[in-house]
Amino acid sequence: VQDRGETTIGDDNWIMAGVHIAHDCVVGSHTIFANASALAGHVQVHDWAILGGYTLVHQFCRIGAHSFCGMGSVINQDVPDFVVVSGNLAEPRGINTEGLRRRGFSREQLFIIKKAYRILYRAGNRLERAIEEIELINDDQGTLDSLIEFLKASTRGIVR
Q1: For the segment 37-60, what is each residue's pLDDT rounded down to a tens digit?
Q2: Which end of the chain is more exposed for a tag (fewer CB within 10 A), N or C?
């Protein structure tokens, strides 16, 4: 066994027809896996993430909380919290504004998340520098705490 030796799936998930979740995966709670989406081994999918139909995730990738992967996406690097990706290969398209609103994020929190997204994807911004800048704009509620932890733990790099 190269990893945990088990796949775990959280609570209140919606897993549609033909979905494949391979060995040693960890799936959080409140996720949605549309038809024929597939995870290779050792993938982590955090709470509230959505994978559109026919989305493919390469082994050892992580899908962040509240992220949204568009239909037919091919993901070969980590998808940060709050980010919308799509394409083959997946590219960032913005933040999951509608999903965040539905989950009760305030206008102020959305503003901070959008600002963090711009910092993260600013041309030429290295991940380490982006993390430092995002830490500086985090609010008293810790809106960006999970994003910061996610980015610090990335070993494959993030979708660019």
Answers
A1: 999 999 999 999 999 999 999 999
A2: N
Question: What pLDDT band is residue 4 in, cutting at 50, 70 and 90?
Answer: confident
Strands 68-69 and 83-86: parallel
Cis (ω within 30 of 0) for the bond into 56?
no
Q: Catalytic residues, which ones?
A: 23-24, 41
Q: Name residue 16's amino acid.
A: M
* Composition of the chain by helix, strand, coil, percent to 5: 25, 25, 50
The Cβ of residue 151 has, within 10 Å, a number of other Cβ atoms equal to 22
In terms of pTM, does the model score above 0.85? yes
Cβ-count burial of 79 within 10 angstroms (0-12 exposed, 13-18 middle, 19+ buried)?
buried
